[in-house]
Amino acid sequence: MVAPSLIPKRAGDRVKTDRRDAAGLAKLHRAGELTAVWVPDARHEAMRDLVRARLDAVHSLRRARQQLSGFLLRQGCHYGRPAWTRPHRPHGSSPWAEGSRLAGLNFEQAVHHIVLEDYIAAVEAAEARRNRLTAQIEAMLPDWTLAPVVAALQTLRGMALVNAASLIAELGDLSRFANPRQLMAYLGLVPSEHSSGATVKRGGITKAGNAAARRLLIEAAWSYRFPARLSRELLLRQERQPRLIRDLAWKGQLRLCARYRRLARTGKPANIVTTAIARELSGFVWAIARQVTVTTG
């Protein structure tokens, strides 16, 4: 199976027949100019749809919170940051819990209480939807063929269950990449380049490939701005993994944490530093997935 969008085509060629297409594909295949693509099975497509549905739920929750925050700001309620943390709902998960700040608000217009209640209901509905889809991912994961890869990736810092499952659902079988550089290029995390002769000019990352997978890696890369350490949660995730995979994860954490601090000291913007860390993190993702593929046969 090849990618139709990556089949080379001569400019000005406006004659298309089955015979010409077959002959052209045969010549391109002999020259090695055709790019093969990985075709997921029905189970993998179902998992991908599930993680994308959860991502949509997260976006809906963020939008609902922003709408509620905007309404409160218009009414002169300034709570500062970070919003939606424990001080806003100290006695329960609901913002209306007794003693919470939202429950104690008073407005001059009675209709504003109705508006506030509606915004809070929207936030709670979005939270419930996100939690339901998260539970469905956890329930579906044991029967997935790539579940061992997801479990192995959780040994990495910044790769909890949902993040690891979403990443593998978007990328699929990583064994199709011969080396980590191919994965980095596929994710669009390599710098663009326009060089000629003695002139070398590199720009921002190409941003090719799967944008959702690239975003997941960049989110995970932010955790490496802190010193290297094994938290209790990370130790629990590593508990059942082979020693080789745990050593790879620790090696990656030591390298990426040190590199983050080194790049930050040079004065580079935080987003550029994090993107560089995400690029190297994808290499460790590839290395761990390769070990799982070899181990599970």
Can you characterise this structure?
Helix 2 runs antiparallel to helix 3 and helix 9 runs antiparallel to helix 10. Strands 1-2 form a two-stranded antiparallel sheet. The chain is an all-alpha fold and 297 residues long. It has two domains: 102 residues, no CATH class; 144 residues, no CATH class. The chain starts with 17 loop residues before the first helix and ends with a helix. The protein is 58% helix and 2% strand. The mean pLDDT is 87.
- Strand coverage percent: under 5%
Number of domains: 2
**Could you tell me the radius of gyration in angstroms?**
24 Å
Number of separate helices: 10
- Helix-and-strand structural type: mainly alpha
Q: What string gives the helices and strands in order?
A: HHHHHHEEHHHH
From the N-terminal CA to the C-terminal CA, the straight-line distance is: 23 Å
Question: Quick one: how many beta strands?
Answer: 2
The biggest beta sheet reads: 2 strands, antiparallel
Secondary-structure map with pairings?
Elements: H1 18-31, H2 42-74, H3 111-140, H4 147-153, H5 161-171, H6 180-187, E1 191-193, E2 202-205, H7 211-221, H8 232-238, H9 243-265, H10 270-296
Antiparallel strand pairs: 1-2
